[in-house]
């Protein structure tokens, strides 16, 4: 099965009539990944070649393909190989302002539709690529070809990509808009703004879409009592005793527990799996991670009880600054004693949005250093 036959199959007008596409499907099952990418490139070229007044419209091609199913390792072949997805992806990308369509087959050197060299390879902008399993990724770069090549090395299954030039000063804003716009159409692999993606992730089994939306808007999501984490409790006992001996430890601990109760959805069920609290990490006194990113920290300097809270937007013109993380976020330093009054309204909503995004993306990075006592300790009775 070669790429020429696939191209002819998509271009032939007899697609309007029944034909044995299962033969084509069986051939797809036996071709390797580079050829899969070539097939998708052909589909992309083909969809752009179909004139608008032609009877063989893109929707006809897509409908014909989607009606033919072939099982390959428990998945629908055309979902796995993505000729249908390539056409849908191409349509959506074009409608969203992407102008350069590219393939990893030639190292992103040539625009697929025009056949001309890619001249925007070193311009700032937004890229959007499609993987073999139908998932996608949206990102920004000032050197997009180098960045796309890095994605091919990291992911290994990038089939098609497109690019939209953008002023460097607008990259964050446009990237966020496109993730929110396109995330409902394709499962996104992004860590950034993962709350927007349609992809099913493990966290969703504990907090579903309706609960997430309600939580971010100000509702509460709780389910049952704290887990029995006996092993972690034993491992963290000595460190917790040492922590309590520090000046200001109880005030900081109260602020941390307030953050957990207000900013983390279903904290009892997600404890030590999607969020964690660590005592004496390398860089600070205490830290709370949501997914792989810290969202609450305290340096624990003598005579100070100040904590740093992360949000997904600037919540204070004077005190908030951009955080040095891949996920767009801002860090604000506040007094531990002022946390209860400060972590409300718009600040709390911004904080919850960021936490949900991080928890949806991945499990916590520090489950092995999680300290259950820090959550369960009662300063008044213990």
Verbal overview:
This protein is an alpha+beta fold and about 375 residues long. It has two domains: about 5-200, no CATH class; about 230-375, no CATH class. About 40% of the residues lie in helices and about 15% in strands. The protein is built from 15 helices and twelve strands. The chain has helices spanning about 5-10, 20-30, 35-50, 60-65, 75-80, 85-95, 145-155, 170-180, 210-215, 230-245, 250-265, 265-270, 340, 345-360, 370-375, and strands at about 70, 75, 100, 125-130, 135-140, 160-165, 275-280, 285-290, 295-300, 305-310, 320, 330-335. A hairpin with a 7-residue loop joins strand 9 (about 295-300) and strand 10. Helix 3 crosses helix 6 and helix 4 (about 60-65) runs antiparallel to helix 6. The radius of gyration is 25 Å and the shape is elongated.
Which strand order does the major sheet show? Answer: 7-8-9-10-12-11
Summarize the biggest pleated sheet: 6 strands, antiparallel
Strand content is 15-25%
Q: How many runs of DSSP E, i.e. beta strands? A: 12
Instruction: Please tell me how large the radius of gyration is.
Output: 25 Å
Overall average residue pLDDT: 77
């Amino acid at each position: 099965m070669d790429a020429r036959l696939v191209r002819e199959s998509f271009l032939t007008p007899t697609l309007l009539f029944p034909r044995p596409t299962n033969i084509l499907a069986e051939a797809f099952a036996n071709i390797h990944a580079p050829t899969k990418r070539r097939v998708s490139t052909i589909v992309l070229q083909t969809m752009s070649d179909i004139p608008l007044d032609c009877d063989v419209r893109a929707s006809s091609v897509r409908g014909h393909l989607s009606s033919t199913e072939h099982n390959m390792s428990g998945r629908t072949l055309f979902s796995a190989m993505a000729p249908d997805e390539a056409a849908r992806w191409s349509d959506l990308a074009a409608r969203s302002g992407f102008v350069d369509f590219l393939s990893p087959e030639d190292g992103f050197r040539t625009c697929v539709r025009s056949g001309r060299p890619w001249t925007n390879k070193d311009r700032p902008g937004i890229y959007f690529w499609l993987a073999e399993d139908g998932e996608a990724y949206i990102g920004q770069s000032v050197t997009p070809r180098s960045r796309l090549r890095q994605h091919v090395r990291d992911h290994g299954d990038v089939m098609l990509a497109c690019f939209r030039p953008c002023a460097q000063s607008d990259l964050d804003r446009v990237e966020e808009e496109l993730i929110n716009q396109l995330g409902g159409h394709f499962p996104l692999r992004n860590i950034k703004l993962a709350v927007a993606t349609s992809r099913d992730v493990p966290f969703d089994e504990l907090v579903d879409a309706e609960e997430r939306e309600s939580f971010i808007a100000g509702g509460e999501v709780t389910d049952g009592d704290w887990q029995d984490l006996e092993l972690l409790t034993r491992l963290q006992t000595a460190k917790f005793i040492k922590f309590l001996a520090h000046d200001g430890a109880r005030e900081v601990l109260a602020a941390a527990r307030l953050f957990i109760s207000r900013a983390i959805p279903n904290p009892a069920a997600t404890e030590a799996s999607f969020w964690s609290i660590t005592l004496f990490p390398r860089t600070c006194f205490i830290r709370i991670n949501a997914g792989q990113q810290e969202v609450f920290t305290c340096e624990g300097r003598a005579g100070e009880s100040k904590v740093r809270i992360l949000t997904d937007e600037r919540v204070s013109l004077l005190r908030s600054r951009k955080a040095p993380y891949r996920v767009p976020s801002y860090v604000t330093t506040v007094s531990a004693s002022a946390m209860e009054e400060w972590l409300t309204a718009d600040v709390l909503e911004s904080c919850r949005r960021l936490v949900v995004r991080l928890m949806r993306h991945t499990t916590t990075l520090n489950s092995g250093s999680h300290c259950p006592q820090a959550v369960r300790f009662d300063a008044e009775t213990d």
